[in-house]
Amino acid sequence: MAKVEIAPLRNWDDFCPGLERFARPDTRDLAKSNNRVVSNLLYYQTNYLVLAISVFVVVGCLHPVSMFMGAAVVASVFIGSVWAGENKAIIKNFKKENPALFVFLGMVVSYFLMSLFGGVMVFLHGILLPLILIFAHASLRLRNMKNKLENKMESAGLKKSLMGIILEALGQQEENLNKIQDFLESKLKE
Questions:
Q1: How far apart are CA 143 and CA 138, in angstroms?
Q2: Contact between residue 107 and residue 10 where contact means Cβ atoms under 8 Å apart
Q3: Beta strand 160-161 pairing with 4-5
Q4: DSSP structural state of residue 156
Q5: Residues with Cβ < 8 Å from 155, sequence gap 6 or more?
Q6: 53-101 pLDDT, tens per residue?
Q7: Is the Cβ–Cβ distance between 74 and 110 less than 8 Å?
Q8: Helices in 63-119 by DSSP H: which ranges?
Q9: Which of 115, 116, 129, 138 has the fewest CB atoms nearer than 10 Å to its CB?
């Protein structure tokens, strides 16, 4: 198994080029759109981390106690869902069959727990705002040749990154998405 590597920080011209490198995702082909998101998450993971930390720090400076509470709740739900997904057969099967719904339910549980403790708006601004920005960029940014090559190396097991480990824990591996896409394409050709 390859050791975990930290992806390089991509330069600004690659991360946010002109509008010609952004396009609306194809909503008719969800496997292809999901593949684009996963690929961009893997390729730009360090840039996304810098973006998330920047927003987190700004909101955290404004509301430190609420941000700490929100971070603790989200981390607890994430760790609990990953543990349950690995150790409980029913949840493991659900995660395998519905990976996007599994992630969505984790977000809903986090939101519900935050509403019990108060500070929902701080949670939304400090934690979900970076996630929304990251998802929007990953959905809209077209992949380039370097992006595709890096992702093939990760899916082949030649490289391992922190984002790859997180996506694998959430059931969002690119190889599973490619299998789904190949299956759908073969069925369309028949």
A1: 9
A2: no
A3: parallel
A4: T
A5: 173, 174, 175, 178
A6: 898 888 889 888 887 887 788 888 889 988 888 888 888 888 878 777 8
A7: yes
A8: 64-87, 89-97, 99-117
A9: 116
